[in-house]
Amino acid sequence: MEWQVIDGRTEYMTNPLGLDERAPRFFWKLRSDERNAAQSAYRILVASTPEALDRDEGDMWDSGEVESDRTTHIVYEGKPLQSEGQYFWKVRSRNNGGIISAWSDTYFWTMGLLSRQEWKGSWIGRRAEPNAELQPSPYVRKEFEARSGIRRATAYATALGLYELHVNGRTVGERFAPGFTDYDKRVQTQAYDVTPWLTEGANAIGGILGDGWYSGTVGFLGNHVYGERPFFLLQLNIEYEDGTRESIATDASWRIAKGPIVYSDMIKGETYDARLELTGWDLPGYDDSGWEQPDVRAGYNGLLTAMMEPPVRVTQTLKPISIRRTEQGTFIYDMGQNMVGWTEIKVRGARGAKVTASHAEMLNPDGSLYLDNLRVAVQQDHYILKGDGEERYEPRFTFHGYRYVELIGYPGEPDLDTIVGKVVHSDTKPTGSLRTSDPMVNQLISNISWGQRGNFLSVPTDCPQRDERLGWTGDAQIFARTASYNMDVSRFFAKFMLDMIDCQQPSGAFTDVAPDAGWIRHKMWNTRLNWFAPDNAGWGDAGVVIPWTLYLMYGDTRILDTHYGAMVRWVEYLRTNSEGLIRPAYANYGDWLSIEADTPNEVLATAYFAYSAQLLSRIAGALGKREDEAAYSRLHEDIAAAFRREFVSEDGRIQGGTQTVYVLALQFGLLTDELRKLAVGHLAADIESRGGRLSTGFLGVGYLLPALTDNGRLDVAYGLLTQEEFPSWMYSIKHGATTIWERWDGWTEHGGFQTPSMNSFNHYSLGSVGEWMYRYLGGIEADPQAPGFRRAIVQPRPGGRITSADASYESLHGRYESSWTLEADGTFKLRVTVPANAAATVHVPGSRIVLDGRPAQEGTTSFELGSGSYEFESRFSSNWE
Ligand code: RAM
């Protein structure tokens, strides 16, 4: 029988470098070919050398044989971990049949520089060019000699701004490092193993610096939000075989110069003059005598935190699907997909010729690029040729949201091979997949996942094209669950939680946007009619919703524990700022971008207050804080009672009468059983009165289909899913959408484009229906009693015009699958796969259920299953016939 440990991870990552977590957690998965395979014990060995580990010596930690079925978040409990320590580990597992697996592969991790004193370098930058609004990107370099016998060389680096690391002519590392944080408070540091790239003798190390979020344009907040220009900090630590060590760190002896990047700004695009290239600058022997001395910055008061978020990478390359010559002699390409990243261009031409790539999401009726919605963003990159055969160009410190590319000034006749689109985002690995019998629904699934890819770039941004691209917390919370089905966002959202904590107000309020990006400092909310308040309902609540989502999907209690105090402060802030537990009708975004359905602010804000209290109670429960659990559960009940008193009439009507008020009241537990029945009737009636259409904005939309499904109106939920008339998801798809639009009416047959002042075609918020699709259509649901998919609830709910669905989810325990088909004669077939050492409660719709060819006991519709694959069959007639 097979019983094997696979996929060992440390802090959710495979062999990570430079951790600053002193009690890292281990994860593994198990493989078995048997049903009901479960772990009964494990043993972990951690060693300081691979040789010790090979001899089965855990000189750092030997967990001993631990009787436990756990395979995730196992906390290291060995000797104290040292700065720059390199640790190797393996694990073996005993199953419930007493079989002990072989030892796993050897995994490793390294620790980073654990104290500030160990950072020996200075922050170096280049003095600003006079009279230049957009500054050239500085190149920095240093040559050094290395002796023979290098055992290990690690570069630790970061920047206030962005950097791209170069070692001996090679680009090392990822895009947009060190990522977006509130630089007033913290910056992330990266560690790279550069051992293979160093040689005995002369070596060169350097970097290219970009303005990024630190000194470049951020959203509509202008530039220089945190500082005027970028600074770089690097330390290369070399260990030799003989035990000696050496450090090369940024200081006044480095050299700095401007180069071909005339400017590169996230929002304003890039200009690259290839005639100014510094050929060989990152190799030893380069003549830098003309370079300047760097400007050394006095210091930095914020925290240096080891990289928390997954790195940003190019994950895919797209070829255009068509090209068209315009009357002006430019060329417009269609990439076939609204994507985020940049264009790589191939070109031949005369020295000094300039080619421009301009990017847009849509076309105007006359076929030209629709640029109006970019506001002050300039999605243009300019390349000035050096005139040297075939030249290739892609920008460095900017990105664009686009489907169409216009090449302006291209010398010669470009074709479909002239450009490619590079898709760029935080590299959160795909975890979920869902395919149905319906091509339009499949397109919706694709649009949702492209929306996520386009907007998860260091932080969850709202949009990738106009001058905004900010970490709006409301958008993030409503989409968090969908996001975590699609991709592994465990660390991405853990990092975003730090961003939220960094800008939590002294009052306890969580902000609308994180990182703060000068938002609060610039007192945006005062200057604009109280518009940008720091505590908007549905936005600030992200501070509780996101940790809860991480707990549900990954079983992470550390995130709850770490931020528990902050979450309590948020709920207490709401309590203090309410009257009789009713939240006042202060200015806020309401149910943002709803369609002819304004939800009253106080109803919405009170509902979310109750929800935050309810989640806090569950979080306290998960942490074993029984008193708090009870206290916040009571608070939730009290708010619910106040809500009913204030807003709900006896016939179940809720003030405002919008779909969203009913949806929130149903989902946040604000109604009695009797009122629930009435409320769902009013909700369905409103949908009916609008011709089977929705009216919800950002806050209502995520709960709309779940509320209907949980309250017996799956039929209405399916009707909304596949509705093709405006407003609906399918309306945009019918009109060619390949991403989720910011607004239901971003473009309509009757009105054309909505106001260009706010009209993104790549916003994920309205795509939060993805959650319902995984949970109910596909049927893979997290069980809060066994979080992190230790056990799943499999509950596919066939309906509407869908006749089959294949869903899978790669959990921390392995892959769950739920595939069903509904045949014309009413035969329902379901195949369920449960990974080893995991379980599922399967609810099979229909009657006369057969499991693996054997009739189940009459009346049984749910099944407790261990690992393995199972085939069900039943007779199904839909619940509304
Ligand atoms: C706009 C965007 C964003 C939303 C805010 C309130 O800037 O639509 O997604 O969160 O408004």
From TrEMBL:
Keywords for this protein: Hydrolase
Class in the EC hierarchy, top level: hydrolase
Entries under InterPro entries matching the protein: 6-hairpin_glycosidase_sf, 6hp_glycosidase-like_sf, Alpha_rhamnosid, Bac_rhamnosid6H, Bac_rhamnosid_C, Bac_rhamnosid_N, Ig-like_fold, Rhamnosid_concanavalin
Gene3D superfamilies assigned: 1.50.10.10, Galactose-binding domain-like, Immunoglobulins, Maltose phosphorylase, domain 3
Biological process according to GO: carbohydrate metabolic process
Domain Alpha-L-rhamnosidase C-terminal: residue ranges: 779-848
Domain Alpha-L-rhamnosidase concanavalin-like, first and last residues per copy: 325-425
All copies of domain Bacterial alpha-L-rhamnosidase N-terminal, residue ranges: 150-316
Catalytic function, reaction form: Hydrolysis of terminal non-reducing alpha-L-rhamnose residues in alpha-L-rhamnosides
EC number assigned by the record: 3.2.1.40
Pfam family of the protein (one): Bac_rhamnosid
GO molecular function, one term: alpha-L-rhamnosidase activity
Domain Alpha-L-rhamnosidase six-hairpin glycosidase, chain residue ranges per copy: 431-776
Protein name according to UniProt: alpha-L-rhamnosidase
